[in-house]
Amino acid sequence: xxxxxxxxxxxxxxxxxxxxxxxxxxxxxxxxxxxxxxxxxxxxxxxxxxxxxxxxxxxxxxxxxxxxxxxxxxxxxxxxxxxxxxxxxxxxxxxxxxxxxxxxxxxxxxxxxxxxxxxxxxxxxxxxxxxxxxxxxxxxxxxxxxxxxxxxxxxxxxxxxxxxxxxxxxxxxxxxxxxxxxxxxxxxxxxxxxxxxxxxx
Length: 201
What we know:
It is a single chain. This protein is an alpha+beta fold. The chain has a single domain (4-178), classed as Rossmann fold (3-Layer(aba) Sandwich), CATH 3.40.50. 20% of the residues lie in helices and 24% in strands. It has helices spanning 18-27, 83-97, 112-118, 159-166, and strands at residues 4-7, 10-15, 34-38, 48-51, 66-69, 100-106, 124-128, 136-137, 150-155, 170-174. The longest helix has 15 residues, at 83-97.
């Protein structure tokens, strides 16, 4: 489930729509083992939940077979973290533990975090058809639509199942041919503490 996002200076918890929670569970075989960025209004009901801000989901263990991430989209000024830190953990969980990971994030292919943790680490992307994805507002329907397009990213070894479930909700693309490739310009990337160093990065 998502953590709180600051919208017009009002702190609210924006959650994944029920249809996508259901779809994520279908991909994972019926349940979600870990939600590392949950909140008090979560409808994800993962077996293990790190509820923000009480727990720091970036510092806790991600050694679980299935993980769903709807990360905070803004900047945590106190901790100095952004969405890129959450995506780095997603990629690391897949590489280190063989976890299946799904993450609901804004479409931003021009950004460093997409080039580094999505295009070259993930197995698939579903570009969601929703014109403006309506997140749950404090656990209830009726929230405003997202101002940006969103995608569901898949790290794992069962792309066919991901495709089978999410083709109903968007355009599903297999990007396994990009794994390990150098994507983007020759700019240098900072390595985060929990990611493996690679000659391609």
